[in-house]
Amino acid sequence: MATSATHPPSIDTIARALGAQSTLPHSLLVDCARRAVTQAPNDAMSTAQKLANDLETALLTEVINGTGVLLHTNLGRAPQSVVGSGRPTNLEFDLGTGERGSRQTSVSALISLLTGAEAAIVVNNNAAAVMLVLAALASDRDVAVSRGESVEIGGGFRIPDVMEQSGARLVDVGTTNRTRLKDYSKAIESRRNNIALTMKVHPSNFAIQGFTHTTSVAELATLSVPVVADIGSGLIDNTCPWLHGHVDRVPSWLVNEPAARQAISDGAALVMFSGDKLLGGPQCGIIAGRADLVELCATHPLMRALRPGGHTLLMLQSVLLSYCARTVCTDVSFWAMVATPLASLESRATEIVRRSGIGSVVSLDSLVGAGSAPGSTVPSVGIALMGDHGTALRAHDTAVISRTVNNTTYLDLRSVSPHDDDIVVAALTALC
Ligand SMILES: *Cc1c(COP(=O)(O)O)cnc(C)c1O
After folding, report:
1. Which of 258, 424, 338 is CA-nearest to residue 79?
2. Is residue 403 included in any domain, yes or no?
3. Which of 58, 213, 253, 272 is most buried, judged by most C-beta within 10 A?
4. How many domains does the chain contain in total?
């Protein structure tokens, strides 16, 4: 029977060959080679090549967001530059006394100043913030939520499920389209319930239109139990003082977004929001409001599991200081994108097209994204290319993420930092 089978190349030979073109550590290439020889002994080299490629493209890497979705959930929402030099920080060390300190002290003070809250704490994301508030303030008790606000935000965040996990019980009040103050007060007065809180939830990613009525935080604040508000999107103040001098007026898509400062002055006992949506900071969740309630959250056993890392706090602090200094439109990428005038996008697009010798300048509509301002668009300018070049642009050294509609590829420049225009030119030139 013995036909002379050609031996597959040795694992070492394959790994070395892969190493000539790959920056992956040798041990990973050896693993690819080993798996390839087992899976496809007759085609080991090209199989190993594919495994190594797959491994490399799966690595986290920086990309250029040409999609026009300013807070792109798949691209990490608000873009951040990493701060810090590698030295340790005074994360839990009081430089005044030399004693142990709290990691929350600095950001808490800044958030309180910006929102008018008595106190604040930071956790890993807004889902954690909502969970902690419910567990700390309403475990084994009832929380009244409007039927129109018992929502799913996406990524597995559903109000009834979070409520159940926290140990609080959801009491639905009102109807899907109309909920009045009376619906909440009836639920509070009912002897069947033991209502600890009312909760407002911003239905971030959809809008109900027509015959609707919602009850405001100000109205709920007149009831006998505290009102907590999951405002989600994280707008600090709906007058947007940081935009003064940059845009003529607050953009219309922001007008209906709930804001932390206004919710607190309307009487919210606590507000919960994401750090990486309209705030423009790193992924985190913020709980701000009454000092006694924040303290109950801070001392709850779950807090230890939900506390953010030092790097997150450092990046958040930097963003909050920019709000205090009113330098948000230059320092915070998301707000820099929002504040960029159309004329400057247009001249960048013209220059990119001229330099790369491909494409044409077009008007586009950017989206805010991350469930903020659903249905609203922000006027923008970008570059259109005939055909679908999505794959080729993603394969560029620094991947450029575009959008293809009707066999035309679009690069929206509002979501691209001007510092990256040279990379866009190189990626486009490579298509010619
Ligand atoms: C986005 C959002 C959440 C989830 O926040 P994460 O920071 O993604 O955990 C919860 N509630 C509302 C209203 C939201 O908009």
Report:
1. 338
2. yes
3. 272
4. 3
C-alpha distances in angstroms, 61 versus 44, 58, 118, 397?
A: 28, 9, 39, 10
**Going by CA atoms, what residue is nearest to atom 11 of ligand 1?**
232
pTM of the predicted protein model: 0.94
Distance between CA 26 and CA 39 in Å, rounded?
20
Nearest CA to ligand 1 atom 2: 232
Is there a domain that residue 138 lies in?
yes
Is any ligand 1 atom within 6 A of the Cβ of residue 371? Answer: yes
Q: Is 161 in the same domain as 274?
A: yes
Nearest atom in ligand 1 to 283's CA = 7
Nearest CA to ligand 1 atom 3: 232
Asked if the model's pLDDT at residue 1 lies above 60, the reply is no
Alpha-carbon torsion 127, 374, 347, 65, what sign? positive
Give the Å distance between the CA of 283 and the centre of ligand 1: 11
Give yes or no for residue 284 CB within 6 A of ligand 1: no
CA of 274 to the centre of ligand 1 (A): 6
Determine, yes or no, domain membership for 83.
no
For 37, the domain range is: 11-58
pLDDT digits (tens, 9 = 90+) for 191-239: 999 999 999 999 877 888 889 999 999 999 999 999 999 999 999 999 9
